[in-house]
Structure formats: C-alpha cells, structure tokens
Specification:
The chain has 181 residues and is mostly helical. It has nine helices and no strands.
Length: 181
C-alpha cells in the first residue's frame, strides 16, 4: 500500500470508529432538522464520514469536529439538491445558516441528548389527553379530526389543546435547560 492509498486514520492519527460513535447520532439529527427524510439523512451521514476519511483530517476538539462534520454534511445535502435539480432559494439558505447556529447552541457537544431528556421529562408533566393528542399528531401523523375524536373535543378544541401543550413543553424545556446552565 503506498502513501496515497493509506487510510486517513493512518495519516492523521484519529480513530474512525470512535469518531463515528461520537458524532453519528448528532449528525443524523442535524440533517433531519435541515429537512432530510430519514433515509436520506442516513445516506448523507454515511457519505459525510466517507468524505472525511478520504482526505487528511485532524480532530481539534469535539465542538470543532462536530461543526466540521455539519459543514460537510450540509455541503453534501446541497450537492444532493443540485444533482436532483431541486431549487434552493436565498430564504432557504438563510434558514440553514440560522438553523446551523441554533443547532450548535442548543444541541451542544451531546448532540441534543440534554434536550431530548428534558423533552421526555416535560412530556410527563402534560395531561394524558394533551400527551395523547401530541403523540397522535407527531408520532402517528393523525389528522386534527382523528385527534379531536380520540380526545372527545371539536377540531378547534384539539388544535387549542395541542397549541397549549406545545407551549407548555417549550416553557418546561427552556426552564430545565436554563437550570442546567
């Protein structure tokens, strides 16, 4: 094997398996937040790691590595859009830049685990009816009419119930995350 064919890990001294274990979930979540379907996010996550393993790479810190991986994934996502002739507007690009900044701020080095833990805890504070309505909507993709029927409300009542529940979750998560800071 010549020097050009040597794997990047041999050249730069990082452990690819550990890098994947440390960053795969966060990278996948980031791609999903960008709007990737689950299967595309999985593909782009793999492509991101392959791309960095094919060139010299040096880990500086967990946050710098995560940012570099997000940038690489974002570029692959844009390439995917171009390849499939999907238009991207300036507004979309501004959204992605804002999302990337917010992601780095909120997800931190634990790739959003703190936020997910807070969400799980805060879900337990909701009424059973509110929790069922949100689960039906976001896990099952149920219509407002189906939710209204299940929780014995009008469609407008179900809409209001879900809006109040989402606000309660947002406030609870913000409170828990600011308490941890």
């Amino acid at each position: 094997m010549d020097a050009k064919a040597a794997p990047a890990s041999a050249v730069t001294g990082f452990d690819p398996a550990r890098l994947i274990a440390d960053h795969q979930v966060g990278l996948w979540r980031y791609l999903r937040a960008l709007g990737c379907e689950s299967s595309l996010a999985e593909d782009l996550t793999q492509e991101t790691f392959l791309a960095i393993f094919q060139r010299p790479f040096q880990e500086l810190s967990p946050s710098a590595t995560a940012a570099y991986l997000r940038t690489t994934a974002h570029n692959l996502y844009i390439s995917h859009h171009r390849k499939h002739n999907r238009l991207t507007t300036v507004a979309d690009l501004n959204y992605v830049e804002d999302l990337s900044r917010q992601w780095a701020k909120l997800a931190g080095v634990d790739h959003g685990e703190t936020l997910l833990d807070a969400l799980r805890s805060c879900l337990q504070e909701l009424t059973e009816r509110a929790r069922l309505a949100l689960e039906m909507r976001f896990s099952d993709g149920a219509s407002r009419q189906e939710i209204a029927s299940a929780v014995n409300l009008t469609e407008d009542g179900a809409k209001n119930l879900m809006q109040r529940a989402k606000k309660q979750l947002r406030d609870c998560i913000e409170r828990q995350c600011s308490d941890d800071s």
